[in-house]
Amino acid sequence: MADAGSDRQTQEGYWKLFQQGLIDKLQIIRKDHEEHNFDRGYIQIHTAGAIAPKPYLLWFNIDTMPYRQGHEGWLEESIGYLDRDDVFAVGGSYNFPAKFKDAWDG
What stretches in the chain show pLDDT beneath 70? Predict the structure, then answer.
């Protein structure tokens, strides 16, 4: 779990989940830290992946979750794709101008 500059109340919630064993690793970055910067966000993404102890890594920005309305099965569907031998990663974007191509037809 990586958090980049949430308020104190949110970070305390993460700490409680960590203490309860519901989060196995926790990276919290203060708002005043130099890595709490849009242009340096890649550091947080790399670190979260590097410390992940599980076979799957789920990285999402919590502020994008409301756009998943109507796609409640997105997590199960994504895991299903990851179980395929021809799939390395699953991503999603509403940035249509940056879309290259679909992985396969359908």
Answer: 58, 60-68, 91-104, 106
Check residue 25 and give its pLDDT. Answer: 84
CB 61, CB 78: distance < 8 Å: no
Residue 104 falls inside a structural domain: no
Residue at 91 is within a domain: yes
Tokens encoding 23: 């989060």
Find the helix or strand (DSSP H, E) in which 86 lies. none
**CA distances in angstroms from 42 to 66, 89, 93, listed in the order given:** 23, 17, 17
- Give the count of domains, the chain: 1
> 4: how many CB neighbours lie within 10 A of its CB?
21
